[in-house]
Amino acid sequence: MSDFPNLVSTGWLAENLRLPELRILDASWYMPAENRDAFAEFKSQHIPGAQFFDIDDISDDHSDLPHMAPDLEKFVSRTRKLGIADGTKVVIYDGAGIFSAPRVWWLFKLFNKADVAVLDGGLPKWIAEGRNVTSTMRSPRDRHLTLSRRANWSKTVSEVAQSSKLKAATILDARAPERFAGSVPEPREGLRAGHIPNAKNLFFKDLLKADGTYKSVDELKAIFKSKGVSEKDPIITSCGSGVTASVISLGLELAGYSNHALYDGSWSEWGGNSLLQVETGAEL
Questions:
Q1: Is 239 a catalytic residue?
Q2: What is the pTM (predicted TM-score) of this model?
Q3: Mutual orientation of helices 101-110 and 245-254 as an angle, nearest 10°?
Q4: Catalytic residue among 119, 207, 220, 239
Q5: Where would I find the H helices in the chain?
Q6: Burial (Cβ within 10 Å: 0-12, 13-18, ≥19) of residue 169
Q7: Contact 93/117 with Cβ under 8 angstroms?
Q8: What mean pLDDT is reported for the chain?
Q9: What is the CB-side half-sphere exposure of residue 175 using CA atoms within 13 A?
Q10: What residues pair up with 55 in beta bridges, in sequence order?
């Protein structure tokens, strides 16, 4: 789709910060229990020129599930207002390092925007290196943007259920081991504890170094291989609500795996549907 990388370093961004075709998005999002206001933090400090991408707002208005992917018309309308156009390149970061930014990367790829990258290490690494932040807010100009929805980049609950039953895909669950095992209550009220039958647990943080950046390509390949991931077989990523599953999706892309899709409803949908089977216990 593009020669633009899926991941860029803080050094690269610092060198290219003033490129006229570059757009920067702060895609910070936090779990409710963290009691963090992502937009308030953005207003307080952000990378110069950045706009705020609200994951909860730019989502499907007709779904009861959290921040499901919006339809094409809404995504185009909202991202145009952020200054995103056909010729722009987009770099996305978040306030946790690598957490919610890959979700927005996944959304742009869902709608076939090619030149989109995640900032490796995010805002924490940028600040730790002493790079400039600002509280100045800018109002971008609405630009022309033509997108289309990509096929086979997301999976529905019925597709995941079929893959689970037939073991037709490797299902990777990005949640913490205790949530996967069902040994702790789910953070969202009303959800059963456990995991999708035949899923494998790959905690998203296992793909990251201590400084919050992605591990090397060789390390990522070794991790995926240890989970039985094959370049030939389909892969489905899942988590609590489609956010950290995207961390795995980006990791797969970096490691050269192309046959993967994200279960957008994730555990918020599966765990809340009593008709769907749930397994508990650690991965065998």
A1: yes
A2: 0.97
A3: 70
A4: 239
A5: 10-16, 38-44, 72-80, 101-110, 122-128, 157-166, 177-181, 217-226, 245-254, 266-270
A6: buried
A7: no
A8: 96
A9: 29
A10: none
